[in-house]
Amino acid sequence: MSEDLLKLFSTEVMQNGPESTLPCNLSDQWLEVLSAQLEDFFENDLDECLSLPMMAVLHILFAKNKGEAISETHDRLFDHLCNYRIELGLEEIRRKTDVSVEPASLEAILTNRTVTFER
Questions:
Q1: CA atoms within 13 A of residue 31's CA, in its CB half-sphere
Q2: Can you tell me the distance from the alpha carbon of 24 to that of 105, in angstroms, rounded to the nearest whole number?
Q3: In terms of domain of life, where is this protein from (predicted)?
Q4: In whole angstroms, what is the distance from residue 90 CA to residue 87 CA?
Q5: Phi and psi at residue 20, in whole multiples of 5°?
Q6: How far apart are CA 50 and CA 54, in angstroms?
Q7: Domain ranges of the chain
Q8: Phi and psi of 99, rounded to 5°?
């Protein structure tokens, strides 16, 4: 993972507020980058692709916890990454098809939320 890419993500996305890393608030470019990196991590076991998605998940966790310290097990962080991967995919579907999917809110993201699909 390039340090420049991490800095760019921090500047372009994370510094725009607590909800900036929600998939519905990402630019098409960042949505694609995060999706590709999670795909590489989960499908190709490429650990070097984990930094950027982990930054996004931690940013969301801090926002959900009002900036207070967070404590999560490795298993729970893995679950959050899986949930974030699903939310990125749902956002891509919402943007590129005629299927309507309710975007995840800060409260609902990284939970086992119920998703409603409409045409």
A1: 18
A2: 9
A3: Bacteria
A4: 5
A5: -70, -25
A6: 6
A7: 3-118
A8: -85, 125
pLDDT for 44 beyond 90: no
Q: What single string gives the DSSP state of each residue in 30-80?
A: HHHHHHHHHHHHHHH--GGG-HHHHHHHHHHHHHHTTT------HHHHHHH
At residue 108, what is the residue type?
A
Distance CA 58, CA 21 (A): 10
How many angstroms separate the CA atoms of 49 and 23, rounded?
A: 18
Q: Report yes or no: 64 and 107 within 8 Å, Cβ to Cβ.
A: yes
The C-alpha angle 98, 53, 86, rounded to 5 degrees, equals 35
Using 50, 70 and 90 to split pLDDT, how confident is the model at 30? very high
Mean pLDDT across the chain: 93
pLDDT, position 56: 97
- SS3 state at 65: coil
